[in-house]
From TrEMBL:
Protein name: Translocation protein Sec63 domain-containing protein
Places the protein is found: Endoplasmic reticulum membrane
Domain J: 15-89
Upper lineage: Eukaryota, Fungi, Fungi incertae sedis, Cryptomycota, Cryptomycota incertae sedis
Doublecortin domain span: 126-209
Topology class, membrane: Multi-pass membrane protein
GO molecular function: protein transmembrane transporter activity; RNA binding
The organism's place on the tree of life at top rank: Eukaryota
UniProt KW keywords: Chaperone, Endoplasmic reticulum, Membrane, Protein transport, Transmembrane, Transmembrane helix, Transport
Origin species: Rozella allomycis (strain CSF55)
Pfam families reported in the protein's UniProt record: DnaJ, Sec63
């Protein structure tokens, strides 16, 4: 409050200074002044000031004023023009801007003034206040600040998907999107509990949020991921809840990143998969495919010592047909067609180096080049560090562009996600993590438009002694379950050579250090 008072006092003082020190230029048109004659001058004296009668030694000087002098002469010699000047202060007559006749009409003067007063005294302050209120209400990521605070307090080091869904149900946005119908949901909640008990899934009512709206949001989300039909009157609200829940996840991920909660961050991406594909758990990934029942999906997952979608795709055609024998021929064809849209990672290549060197040196900035290959026929090109120049979009505009770099090796674009239970069209993206002992060593990289292959460069700093370190590369798709990739790519760190020419982290500027994630 004191700051606002000081600001207003300063503004008032500055306004006073400007008003009393600014020279006012008189814009009143005065032909007598231009012709440099007295106001009592006779017609004969005025005619002596005709532009053609200016002396030769003054003609050069008068050139710039010729038009003004001519106009002034006319204003005093032409009766009509002089009359205009005497009545309106201008030889051209009454001056006004191009406004409708009713605005400048004298009869409507009071009405126009009244409308102007309403505009300036009511409408403008209202709109400014509305903008200010909105800016205070929302974060940069278009989430209520109240909801963001709720997420911040609830996000912990280790959270399962159920904890994430519970946190989402407490968001303030739902207060204006959802009507409280707690009593009508009791039967639906009983159906959810039966499904969870029968199949061994987690489900319990929220203990943190017990108000009617939060309970309804929680129930509608679980009805979606359990694929339990809801009453028709709830269909529209359920879709709103699902779309809003997906919008919350980037904010929750950002908070988890800031707190360093890697396990919770992975759970948030799993919740995204569960909502997009309507899955009770990401492990039942075959339930994403058409015509596969819950039980058949579990059967295929347990076949041959454990199958996931990437392994299933690589099986011989005859083996796939055998596993899908319970389906009709046309249904099997549709399953195989749907699988073509699943972005399966075929191979990942990783290379570590100190920029400009062939090795990784202790106490230096480390560069990891990660190449994703989605198509077995895509060429595995040798990537030059100088080629990796295109800034990669992060989860928001505040991601430092110097931290993440990427480029496309082709012009392909990701197709829309196959998600029959999520009505809104969506494109998928990949989250890339580099970890040591389940701790991230740099900010996650978000990969869009992967196409057949994509290469990214990630820089980070590890102050570690020489040795061999098991860095794990983790890739999770935000829209498809069962496609996650995890593999250790060991990194060998050698002793720092005695070379004054090589850049050392301690010798970098503060701006350069800020662009690199420290561990």
């Amino acid at each position: 409050m004191q700051r606002k008072v000081r600001y207003l006092e300063s503004l008032a003082g500055y306004s006073y200074y400007v008003i009393h020190t600014t020279e006012v230029v008189d814009q009143f048109y005065d032909p007598f002044k231009i012709l440099e004659i007295d106001r009592t001058a006779s017609p004969a004296e005025i005619k002596k000031k005709h532009p053609d009668k200016v002396s030769d030694d003054l003609k050069d000087e008068a050139n710039e004023k010729f038009i003004q002098i001519s106009k002034a002469y006319q204003a005093l010699t032409d009766e009509d023009i002089r009359k205009n000047w005497e009545e309106y202060g201008n030889p051209d007559g009454q001056q006004s801007i191009a406004l409708p006749a009713w605005v400048v009409s004298q009869e409507n003067g009071f009405k126009v003034l009244f409308l102007y007063g309403i505009l300036m005294a009511v409408f403008m302050p209202y709109k400014i206040g509305q903008w200010w209120s909105k800016s205070k209400k929302y974060t940069k990521m278009k989430v209520y600040r109240k909801s963001a605070k709720t997420f911040y307090h609830l996000i912990e080091d280790v959270m399962i998907p159920g904890d994430i869904i519970e946190a989402i149900s407490g968001a303030s946005e739902f207060e204006t999107l959802i009507t409280p119908d707690h009593e009508e949901l009791k039967e639906l909640m009983s159906d959810l509990q039966r499904f969870a008990d029968k199949n061994g899934y987690y489900y319990e009512l929220s203990r943190k949020f017990t108000n009617a709206i939060a309970v309804k949001v929680h129930t509608l989300i679980y009805a979606h991921i359990f694929r339990v039909e809801v009453p028709e009157k709830f269909h529209e609200e359920q879709q709103k809840v699902l779309e809003q829940s997906i919008k919350f996840l980037p904010t929750m991920i950002k908070i988890a990143m800031a707190k360093g909660h890697h396990e919770s961050l992975l759970s948030m991406i799993s919740v995204s998969q569960m909502i997009i594909q309507a899955l009770p758990n990401p492990t039942i990934s075959f339930w994403q495919l058409p015509f596969l029942t819950h039980d058949l999906s579990l059967t295929i997952s347990g076949a041959k010592g454990g199958l996931d979608i990437p392994k299933f795709v690589s099986l011989p055609k005859e083996t796939k047909q055998t596993l899908l024998k319970d389906l009709k021929s046309e249904e099997r064809k549709e399953v195989m067609e749907a699988l073509k849209s699943f972005p399966v990672i075929k191979k990942v290549n990783v290379k570590y180096t100190t920029l400009g060197e062939d090795n990784v040196y202790s106490g230096s900035v480390i560069t990891a080049v990660v190449q994703l290959i989605m198509d077995e026929n895509a060429p595995e090109e040798t990537v030059s560090f100088d080629d990796v120049t295109e800034a990669l979009p992060g989860i928001d505009d505040e991601t430092p562009s110097g931290r993440l770099k990427s480029f496309l090796t082709n012009d392909a674009k990701d197709e829309s996600v196959y998600c029959p239970f999520y009505k809104k069209e969506k494109s998928s993206c990949w989250w890339l993590f580099l970890t040591i002992q389940n701790r991230t060593i740099c900010d996650p990289v978000v990969l869009y438009n992967v196409g057949k292959s994509k290469t990214v460069k990630v820089q980070f700093y590890l102050n570690i002694p020489p040795g061999k370190y098991p860095i794990k590369v983790v890739l999770k798709n935000d829209s498809y379950a069962g496609l996650d990739f995890e593999k250790e790519f060991p990194m060998t760190v050698v002793a720092e050579p005695e070379s004054p020419d090589r850049d050392h982290f301690d010798d970098m500027s503060e701006d350069e250090k800020d662009k690199i994630k420290l561990f």
